[in-house]
Amino acid sequence: MCYAHSKGSRIVLKGDVPLQEIVDPAKRAAWISQQVDLAKKQYMDGINIDIEQEVNETSPEYYALTELVKETTDAFHREIAGSQVTFDVAWSPACIDKRCYNYTGIADACDFLFVMSYDEQSQIWTDCVAKANAPYLQTLVGYEEYIAMGIDPKKLVMGVPWYGYDYVCQNLSMEHVCSLPKVPFRGAPCSDAAGSQVPYAAIMKQVNTSLSGVLWDEVQKAPFYEYKDSVGQFHQVWFDDPHSISLKAAYVKSRGLRGIGMWNGNSLDYSRETAAEQQTQAMWQALTP
């Protein structure tokens, strides 16, 4: 950690707690105290609260979650000078995956929101077909929704995916439409649970031997490719690359968002192979338009 600090990095805890446990103010205070003590012992610079649990707007958890963020921020700022408290939110505030949070209250209470602009097909309400993990226009709509709520763009950090989804197609048409089995999720008839997550490094190792090579969807502004597995099934893999990420990074800059990040840094190939070095460098550079 000392080396990371010497390079200007900030190291923070990842905080998660069952929401029913923090409805009680005493239990909430105990959890916050534990996090502050742990951060001090490990020389941490703050905490990232990553809950991702269902919340109903009329529930006690709705209010308790906002209080948790506010009280955590107050405690960290008081106990650790220059500390940072952040909160992870879905790509849109529209109750994605039934996460109906008090987004404006939480944004006011912490230093910034990390918007997880990925897994945007966790609830598929339209045709059950493979799509981009983070389609360009859909991603931008999410930010405009947050901003329309009154959240300052400087309170928003865009999170982009350094991984993709590998889908087994029930049928793959000549027009590259990959039909998926119906895997319901939180009320939606279909979801990206029909596929499996694949890190960028693995995608780069496979794409050159695929049936299609890299293809580009101009509507979603995302790359994909297709291959056939050992038992003869067709697959379609959607992912983000330097091209698709640079488009989103340009929006971050022009819209005045606080910054951009990724999930996650370990998804790249950091070997000394020439191709891997070039691919990794290009992904990092895409974050800074």
Any chance you could write out the topology, listing elements then pairs?
Elements (H helix, E strand, L loop, with lengths): L1 H5 L6 E3 L9 H17 L4 E4 L10 H20 L4 E7 L12 H7 L2 E5 L19 H13 L7 E6 L1 E6 L2 E2 L5 E2 L15 E5 H8 L7 E3 L4 E7 L5 E5 L3 H14 L3 E5 L10 H12 L4
Parallel strand pairs: 1-2, 2-3, 3-4, 4-5, 5-13
Antiparallel strand pairs: 6-9, 6-12, 7-8, 10-11, 11-12
Helix pairs in contact: 2-3, 3-4
Overview of the molecule:
With 289 residues, this protein is an alpha/beta fold. The protein has one domain (2-161, 241-285): TIM Barrel (Alpha-Beta Barrel). It is built from eight helices and 13 strands. It has helices at residues 2-6, 25-41, 60-79, 103-109, 136-148, 200-207, 242-255, 274-285; strands at residues 13-15, 46-49, 84-90, 112-116, 156-161, 163-168, 171-172, 178-179, 195-199, 215-217, 222-228, 234-238, 259-263. The strands form three sheets. Strands 1-2-3-4-5-13 form a six-stranded parallel sheet. α2 packs parallel to α3. The longest helix has 20 residues, at 60-79. It is globular and about 60 Å long. The two termini are 28 Å apart. 36% of the residues are buried.
